[in-house]
Write a structure and sequence with these properties.
With 543 residues, the chain is of the alpha/beta class. 31% of the residues lie in helices and 23% in strands. It contains 19 helices and 20 strands. The strands form four sheets. The protein has a six-stranded mixed beta sheet with strand order 6-7-8-3-9-10, sandwiched between helices. Bound molecules: adenosine-5'-triphosphate. Adenosine-5'-triphosphate (ATP) binds next to strand 2, helix 1 and helix 16.
Length: 543
């Protein structure tokens, strides 16, 4: 099953893109070593690997953004254009990145043909061509709409349409469901099938293995920069994939040597009566008019040692609630009390001072300082304690203080001094989490904390949050639309249109009931609990 070179093209399937022996170094980090793979017409190849395995580096090379140190990229049997000749590169490959490359102030048609027009432009013509593409592929978006008015799903469609307009034969989708709701993710799967049926090759990068099983014919696994497995998805099960990713036999519930298992910390000893524990957080009648999801009078509480999940659809106000409690945004009415004391509204510094740790949704904007080293980021909020009376804080002391936290989250870096901005996306998220854990807050607000984190690290991350709650008596407010995150919670509050719709207070929580509740319906349990990977079909996992 293991192979390091490009897999043999099956009969009748044309190899459109072929990568052989690709190496890429960043300083001392060997991000890719001798990687080879093929993208074939009409096939969807999944690309998976742990955080830092080299997926984004390979995507950047395939997208013509960076040059490999060694190895070749061939399009249709010919050497690829030189790096930088973006126009010719886009005739073969177009990438839909996690962060939208759409210009919000331009219309759909302008974005579809952005950088793809001769100097004399007939907008009428471009609109007509955009309409033709939308029609051909069954996309339903008006070519004249300004992109700022579109949803995340529609923006993705515009990016796919842009790829098709350039005649790209291969489309790379990098974590495409990360910001999509369940139904939108399902529609995306249909579009991927449509693309492959039309002869397009798709490279599908995801941490959601269920998605890979659902839509990819083949899957390639990167581990520490090496391609360790390429195989038909039908010949593997989830455990095989995880084993290839982590490098060893990994069965559900097992963990790597030296890493604490999620189960160890999942709900250690199940604190007998959390309701009787003192109230850490009390949210009272919170109202907000936030454009990202309003709140219409939300009240809830979190007790010491308790992990309370908050979930709902994208616009239900889940992130708004988390951001307001963390002091990252203001609110119109209501109050937030920590240990009975009112927390000033809308000030992150004041909230942190009061004891509220924050794992933000947008780690790039709020989570870490890119040019500072890993250890400096992790210990940023405890620098005063570490330097003690002398006021001198040596890098070695920072590194020693950060080490247990980064090890616990299995953070991959070139060392404690590596700038956080150079880390892979998932490892940047781990820096954010480690920093929050470091200052031992009495309440942790985490918003979609496992987004972009690999499947094995998710367990570690969630386990760490639960462990902190159990061992220090901190409260955790876990705001997430990923149902599998909620398995670690003691209670789950479901928001619908900015109001508390219902509460689940007895784990394990039934995923079907949770889904129904997020849609504003109440049902009867029929299926397995959340967090059981075997029982979470792709549409739920795609949340
Ligand atoms: N510009 C850079 N400078 C230094 N190191 C880098 C740079 N870009 C990537 N790396 C390193 O290369 C390795 C591979 O990173 P890459 O982003 O490709 O991983 P990934 O598989 O995409 O991870 P994730 O799942 O977290 O997004 C990591 O160790 C990362 O720190």
């Amino acid at each position: 099953m293991t192979s390091s070179g490009p897999p043999d093209p099956g009969p009748g399937s044309t190899v459109l893109v072929e990568v052989t022996g690709v190496d890429k170094r960043f300083g001392t980090t060997r991000a890719l070593r001798g990687v080879g793979l093929s993208l074939r017409a009409g096939q969807c190849l999944g690309l998976v690997g742990r955080n830092g395995a080299g997926k984004s580096t390979l995507v950047s090379i395939l997208s013509g953004l960076i040059e490999p140190d060694a190895g070749t990229v061939r399009f249709g049997g010919e050497p690829a254009p030189r790096v930088g000749d973006i126009a010719r590169w886009r005739e073969w490959i177009a990438t839909v990145f996690q962060h939208s490359m759409i210009v919000p102030d331009l219309s759909v048609a302008e974005n579809v043909f952005l950088g793809n027009t001769s100097s004399v432009v007939s907008w009428r013509e471009l609109r007509a061509r955009t309409r033709a593409i939308m029609r051909e592929w069954g996309f339903d978006i008006d070519a004249r709409t300004p992109c700022r008015e579109l949803s995340v799903e529609q923006l993705q469609i515009v990016e796919i349409a842009r790829a098709l307009a350039r005649g790209a034969k291969c489309v790379l989708l990098d974590e495409p469901t990360a910001a999509l709701e369940r139904q939108a993710a399902r529609r995306l799967f249909d579009r991927v099938r449509q693309l492959t049926a039309g002869g397009v090759a798709v490279l599908y990068i995801s941490h959601h293995l269920e998605e890979v099983f659902e839509i990819c014919e083949n899957v390639a696994v990167l581990r520490d920069g090496e391609l360790v497995l390429t195989a038909p998805t039908a010949s593997l099960d989830r455990d095989d994939l995880v084993a290839a990713m982590v490098g060893g036999v990994h069965r559900a519930g097992e963990h790597r040597a030296g890493e604490p298992a999620a189960g160890d910390a999942g709900r250690p000893g199940q604190a007998p009566d959390l309701e009787a524990a003192p109230v850490v957080l009390s949210v009272d009648g919170l109202e907000s008019g936030s454009a990202r999801g309003r709140l219409g009078g939300v009240s809830l509480s979190v007790h010491a040692g308790e992990v309370v999940g908050v979930t709902g659809l994208l616009s239900a106000g889940v992130a708004t609630l988390g951001r307001a409690v963390a002091g990252a945004e203001g609110y119109a009415a209501g109050q937030i009390l920590l240990h009975g004391r009112r927390v000033p509204a809308g000030g992150r510094a004041a909230a942190q001072h009061a004891g509220i740790g924050y794992i933000p949704e947008d780690r790039r904007a709020e989570g870490f300082v890119a040019h500072l080293g890993v250890a400096e980021n992790v210990t940023m909020t405890i620098a005063g304690d570490l330097s003690g009376r002398t006021g001198v804080l040596r890098p070695a002391r920072r590194a020693a203080a950060a080490a247990p936290l980064t090890a616990r989250l299995s953070l991959v870096s070139a060392g404690p001094r590596q700038p956080a901005g150079e880390l892979s996306g998932g490892n940047q998220q781990k820096v954010t989490v480690a920093r929050t854990l470091a200052h031992r807050p009495s309440l942790i607000v985490a918003i979609t904390p496992t987004r972009g984190v690999d499947v094995a690290s998710k367990e570690l991350l969630l386990g760490s949050l639960a462990d902190v709650a159990a061992s220090t008596g901190a409260g955790v407010l876990l705001c997430s639309d990923e149902l599998s995150d909620l398995a670690v919670c003691d209670r789950v509050v479901v928001l619908v249109r900015g109001e508390v719709f219902t509460e689940f207070s007895k784990p394990p929580f039934d995923r079907d009931e949770l889904i129904l509740a997020t849609e504003g319906m109440k049902g009867t349990a029929t299926n397995g609990p959340v967090g059981d990977p075997a029982s979470v079909p792709a549409e739920e996992a795609a949340q």
